[in-house]
Amino acid sequence: MENQSESLMASGTAKKARKVPADNRMHGLDFLRIIFALLIVFGHYRVGAVDNGVFEGDPGPRIYNFIRFAVEMFFVLSGLLIAKSVKDRSYVNYMIARIVRITPALLFCATITFAVAVILADTKWGVRADWQHWLASVTVLPLLINDTWGIDWPYWSLTYEFRFYFLAGFYMIFFKSERALLIATAVWMAASFFALVIDNVALQTLTVSRASGCFAMGIMLHFITSVPRYRMQALIVMIPSLIVAQMSMMREAGIRHINGDDFILYWPEAVGATLFMVIVIGAFVYVPMPKRADKALQLGGMMTYPLYLLHMFVGWVIIAKCAAHGMRIDLAILTAMIVIVPVAVAISAWGEPFVGKYLKAALKSSTNAIEPHLPKALWKLLYTPQAKRRMVQPAAASTADAQPVLPVQALAPDASR
């Protein structure tokens, strides 16, 4: 009977443990990334094919224009996922992981876009597909400085992603607690709000106000879903985060309208869009996915990055070629997606790991060579995760006979030392 009860308890524990994958990856969010990446691709193809004159007629119902805000969904996801992982890594390991994640896909996708522009494209539709922008794209740093250096239009969002990674790394060096992250985010939202109100370009660049509200929404979702003791405070900070995100969306929609875009965004729509992002992403944190689909969802989630980089210009070229042969717009879009998606999967499954392996080894070798020459204080900031900077002190024994309390072992030990 005891053995049976133990087995039941073990099975119950196993069922509970399955709610969080062993690799700590939330596959519900991978599923969400796949869906919204495909929506972005469809929206760019459907609206862009008409705007670029490839097909004549109506670009589609008004709701198609809201697909553009799926990019903001990825900003929210970045805020959530970076907040979950930032405190368990050293600054050096965090930056190596970001560079290895970012660079290989840029190398493949920028090169393919450049080659298609040179060999196949009859027109560039204003896309900056030249060797200067190719070089800027594959070397990454120019994208951090300015959002016009990308070889294709979707690269604009990478500028804000990279700036957010830099801010997250800054937090990792100088702050040591969840409470500090919460306070820093609140201050960040206040500065972003001020930058948008006074319309100061320099301050907007410094605060990343174009996307800061969405990143902060993701950070607050991290607190709401994973840090119960700060849940109420996170709900309070979520309010200015939503307001900043809405202000940014309205500002960008206004700029596009002035530049000739027919789409006009209204405040209730901006409010609804931001609330939709928070509710959907917050819900999918808890959505269970079939265990057998874990690998497929992980590959699909990783595939969304090269898909986003590759899809626009290359897809427009494919659609234009299909239109030249008399194909209908829906079939031309389907053809482009059938070509682009497998290429993105191949880059994610084979190209990125191959290049990433050598890039990671080179970066590790460089940082290991520098490490012994650093002052102790600087080494502690750069090479130890936050979890190790403030070790929990063992409680004092109440009696002489009490067993000594062992120090708490840090989660996710850092491998850089």
How does this structure look, described?
The protein has 417 residues and is mainly alpha-helical. It is globular and about 65 Å long. The longest helix has 42 residues, at 329-370. The chain has 16 helices and no strands. Helix 2 (27-51) packs parallel to helix 13 (294-324), helix 3 packs parallel to helix 7 (156-174) and helix 8 (178-198) runs antiparallel to helix 9 (201-207). The termini are far apart.
Residue-averaged pLDDT: 84
Which range does the strand content fall in?
under 5%
Q: What is the gyration radius calculated from CA atoms?
A: 24 Å
Low-pLDDT residue intervals, each spanning 5 or more residues: 1-23, 391-417
Helix content: over 70%
Order of helices and strands: HHHHHHHHHHHHHHHH
Return the structural class: mainly alpha
Task: Characterize the overall form.
Answer: globular
Q: The biggest beta sheet, please?
A: none
Distance between the termini: 48 Å
Number of strands: 0
Number of helices: 16
Summary?
The chain is mainly α and 417 residues long.
Please name the defining characteristics of this protein:
mainly alpha, 16 helices, 417 residues
Topology:
Elements: H1 2-17, H2 27-51, H3 70-85, H4 91-119, H5 131-139, H6 141-145, H7 156-174, H8 178-198, H9 201-207, H10 212-226, H11 231-258, H12 267-284, H13 294-324, H14 329-370, H15 376-383, H16 386-389
